[in-house]
Amino acid sequence: MKKILFSLILFLSLVSCRKDIPLDIDNSPETMEELQVPSSFDWKTTKDVQLTLTGNANGIVQVTSLNGVSYQKAFLSSNQAYIMKLTVPSYEKTVRLLFLGQQVTLELTANNLTYQF
What we know:
Strand content: 35-45%
Number of strands: 7
Radius of gyration: 31 Å
Structural class: mainly beta
Number of helices: 1
Mean pLDDT: 88
Low-confidence stretches: none
């Protein structure tokens, strides 16, 4: 009985061992010259937005991401337009404006935006 059981285990262990043959051949480029990128791909990681802000009183405006990362601060004079060049990550679709206790979410839909508090 022991011989039969040992023979069976030995047979199963030999039959179940097979060499894996890789079917997926990796065609990843090894150099930048081999990399094929569409001509429409934008390599920029940031974008520039011009904000024109006008406050109804003197105070400091802060431009942040929705996560609270501060991009820029500026002093607004009452009823005078302030033009700010803002550079944000290209994935950013909205920013938050903080001015005298007000919080405003502004969508970055164009390169030139205007907001009046």
